[in-house]
Amino acid sequence: MTKVVLREGESLDAALRRFRKDLAKSGVLRDARKHEHYEKPSEKKRRERAKRLRKAR
Q1: Which residues contact 46 (CB under 8 A, 6 or more apart)?
Q2: Is the pLDDT of residue 38 over 90?
Q3: Residue 12 CB contacts under 8 Å (≥ 6 apart), including other chains
Q4: CB 15 within 8 A of CB 6
Q5: CB atoms < 10 A from the CB of 29, how many?
Q6: What is the separation, in whole angstroms, between the first and last Cα of the chain?
Q7: In the chain, which ranges are E strands?
Q8: What is the pLDDT of residue 2?
Q9: Spatial distance between the Cα atoms of 39 and 54, rounded to a whole number of angstroms
Q10: What is the pLDDT of residue 25?
Q11: Confidence of residue 57 (pLDDT cuts 50, 70, 90)
Q12: Alpha carbons 48 and 57: distance in angstroms, whole number
């Protein structure tokens, strides 16, 4: 769980920027988007195979 405590004299915008940066680093949003819909095992294999092929080039 990502938490951001508002520092003394810190604006809400700055705290929000820190929060978003922490979310990006931890990968919480990426995982949430990945698990948003069910993915059949065959679709997952196809996606990962395509990813490997793109990476190999």
Answers
A1: none
A2: yes
A3: 6
A4: yes
A5: 11
A6: 37
A7: none
A8: 86
A9: 20
A10: 94
A11: confident
A12: 15
Domain locations along the chain: 12-56
Q: Which two tokens stand for residue 47?
A: 């996606």
Per-residue pLDDT tens over the stretch 6-20: 999 999 999 999 999
- What is the rounded CA–CA span in Å between residue 41 and residue 1? 28
Distances, alpha carbon 19 to alpha carbons 2, 16, 47, 57, in Å: 7, 5, 31, 36
Q: Which pTM was predicted? A: 0.61
Task: Give the integer Cα–Cα distance in Å for 36 and 38.
Answer: 7
Assigned token pair, 40: 């059949």
Is the confidence at residue 21, as pLDDT, over 90? yes
